[in-house]
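Lecture notes, part 5. Sequence design as translation. It can be helpful to think of inverse folding as translation between two languages: the language of shapes and the language of residues. The source text, in structure tokens, appears below.
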């Protein structure tokens, strides 16, 4: 799920899994599901979202009705699916889970909607990737709890109205800007999920360690949290890999030294950059002098698909202040040279001479 942002894929073009990808591999999905909190009070981080959502759900329970439709936006791995399951648990309602790409025709959506029970939660992941005909059907379903099913084709086609029981739609998206306004406006509550602070991720690591029966001290948890890219899903994955290392190479106890050595084995550096991230930065600095360079050229230089570089590596590098996008191409920031331990040439982007001559930051 949640596969249309910087965590678009866990597998690079060479077939290797990315340990810091935000997507969950199929063989680890069950483990990640076991680590999910079951109640809103157990959910770590997103304090504003939790407070607002708590009010929405409590008010709905006191009215004895269904909760308003909820839209959750944010990067992959921040807890959108978990929150949808918590909403169902808090409302004591069943939950139906599907995704936008799975709904390619209006009939697909009609089949799902017609089988919903009263009060049921419908979780629609990557809602922005739903087909337009299904999207338009969803407008009426959300507002009037009714859909018109078209029977037949051409002049003989007939619209049969189908009444729906009250339900709550929980939509999740990594690209809220791609949602058309008519759909976005039909959600009674919208929330944007922010990246986690290191302290919050430390709480996530400690909680997951208890559930996995892993021994870790405060410094070990801090080390893992600091390399988790602000994402709980990544923190949980790194914890499991460090646990493996600690069990094989040490006595099973995770401290700062063990965590550092384990993550070095898995090529995750102190800022959370992995092999692909460093390859992109390395090519930009060593081959192109810090840029500017076009995305296609940069992709060829690192041996990856253009989409992989743009959707997997770039967003995190930009957020970390290591790379910038300009109209003339990608450029490295001074922090990128420092992070890789390379000396900045006089004409590099970010140096006084380079900025004056190339006009990179002013475009």
């Amino acid at each position: 799920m949640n596969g249309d942002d910087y965590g678009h894929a866990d597998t690079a073009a060479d077939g290797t899994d990315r340990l810091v990808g935000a997507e969950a591999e199929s063989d680890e999905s069950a483990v990640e599901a076991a680590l999910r909190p079951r109640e809103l009070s157990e959910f770590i981080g997103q304090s504003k979202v939790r407070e607002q959502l708590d009010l929405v759900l409590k008010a709905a329970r006191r009215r004895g009705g269904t909760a308003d439709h909820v839209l959750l936006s944010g990067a992959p791995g921040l807890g959108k699916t978990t929150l949808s399951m918590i909403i169902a648990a808090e409302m004591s309602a069943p939950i139906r889970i599907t995704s936008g790409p799975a709904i390619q025709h209006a009939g697909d959506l009609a089949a799902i909607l017609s089988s919903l029970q009263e009060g049921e939660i419908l979780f629609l992941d990557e809602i922005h990737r739903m087909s337009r005909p299904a999207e338009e059907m969803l407008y009426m379903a959300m507002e009037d709890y009714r859909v018109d099913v078209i029977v037949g084709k051409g002049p003989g086609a007939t619209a049969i109205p189908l009444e729906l029981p009250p339900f709550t739609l929980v939509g999740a998206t990594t690209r809220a800007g791609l949602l058309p306004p008519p759909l976005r406006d039909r959600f009674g509550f919208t929330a944007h999920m922010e990246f986690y602070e290191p302290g919050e991720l430390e709480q996530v690591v400690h909680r997951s360690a208890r559930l996995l029966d892993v021994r870790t001290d405060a410094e070990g948890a801090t080390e893992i949290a600091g390399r988790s890219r602000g994402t709980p899903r990544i923190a949980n994955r790194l914890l499991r890999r460090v646990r493996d290392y600690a069990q094989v190479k040490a006595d099973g106890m995770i401290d700062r030294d063990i965590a550092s050595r384990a993550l070095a084995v898995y090529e995750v550096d102190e800022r959370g950059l992995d092999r692909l991230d460093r390859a992109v930065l390395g090519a930009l600095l060593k081959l192109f002098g810090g840029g500017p360079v076009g995305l296609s050229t940069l992709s060829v230089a690192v041996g990856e698909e253009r989409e992989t570089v743009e959707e997997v590596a770039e967003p995190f590098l930009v957020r970390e202040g290591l790379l910038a996008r300009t109209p003339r191409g990608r450029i490295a920031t001074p922090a990128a040279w420092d992070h890789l331990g390379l000396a900045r040439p006089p004409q590099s982007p970010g140096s006084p001479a380079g900025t004056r001559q190339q006009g990179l930051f002013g475009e």
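The translated text above is only one of many valid answers, since several sequences can fold into similar shapes. Residues 232-249 form the longest helix (18 residues).
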